[in-house]
Amino acid sequence: MIKAIIGLGNPGEKYKNTRHNVGFMVADLVAKSLNCDRKYREKAFSHIFECPDYDVIIAKPQTYMNLSGNAVLNILKDYKIKPSEILVVYDDLDLPLGAVRLRLKGSSGGHNGIKSIINTIKTEEFPRLKIGIGRPEKKEEVSDYVLSPFTKEEKFLLDKVLAHANECILNVLKYGVEKSMNMCNKNLV
């Protein structure tokens, strides 16, 4: 059973609509769908949406992407949650925009936020929802690319992806991760 949905991103207006903040975008959408109350938890280094009707919290770590593990560890401790009871939502360069993948566990795949979580909580065994953002044409442009906003052309597809991710998470809360994989794993292009 999932007790915390953790959307990864970077805090601040500067990063609000960037590719790296897809996790935050999904977290906001799910919190709105579930009519959750927003609270800032200083101790957990996160913006927390408490959803008492669903026995789940939704978190947006405010530690910046590369230090996400610090916030996740505090969430696990503060809410007495096991790693298997979180669902981490984040951007994935190796998937094209339009692709969504739900997994029970896995490596970091080179994602610094996931790497930070794995190194801090000492396990790869936590569910995750990967949202494809595609890759830039040149490898050296990756850091600029993930911190850039979506283009107008991409925005239409992004809206479909966010809506699908929201449905996926609602399904996970109802039926669990394993039973939701077929519904969630899609290419929306």
Structure in words:
- With 189 residues, this protein is an alpha/beta fold.
- The chain has a single domain, classed as Peptidyl-tRNA hydrolase (Rossmann fold).
- Helix content is 38%, strand content 21%.
- It contains 6 helices and 8 strands.
- The chain has helices at residues 22-33, 68-79, 112-121, 142-146, 152-175, 177-184; strands at 4-7, 37-41, 46-51, 56-61, 86-92, 99-103, 128-132, 186-187.
- Strands 2-3-4-1-5-7-6-8 form an 8-stranded mixed β-sheet, with helices on both faces.
- Helix 2 (68-79) crosses helix 3.
- The chain is globular.
- It starts with a strand and ends with a strand.
- 41% of the residues are buried.
Low-confidence stretches: none
Order of helices and strands: EHEEEHEEHEHHHE
- Label the structural class: alpha/beta
- Mean of all residue-level pLDDT scores: 95
Number of domains: 1
Strand content: 15-25%
Count all strands and give the number. 8
CATH architecture: 3-Layer(aba) Sandwich
- Helical content (DSSP H or I, runs of 4+): 25-40%
Describe, in short, the structure shown:
With 189 residues, the protein is an alpha/beta fold. It has helices at residues 22-33, 68-79, 112-121, 142-146, 152-175, 177-184, and strands at 4-7, 37-41, 46-51, 56-61, 86-92, 99-103, 128-132, 186-187.
Task: Set out the fold topology.
Layout: E1 4-7, H1 22-33, E2 37-41, E3 46-51, E4 56-61, H2 68-79, E5 86-92, E6 99-103, H3 112-121, E7 128-132, H4 142-146, H5 152-175, H6 177-184, E8 186-187
Parallel strand pairs: 1-4, 1-5, 5-7
Antiparallel strand pairs: 2-3, 3-4, 6-7, 6-8
Helix pairs in contact: 1-5, 2-3, 5-6
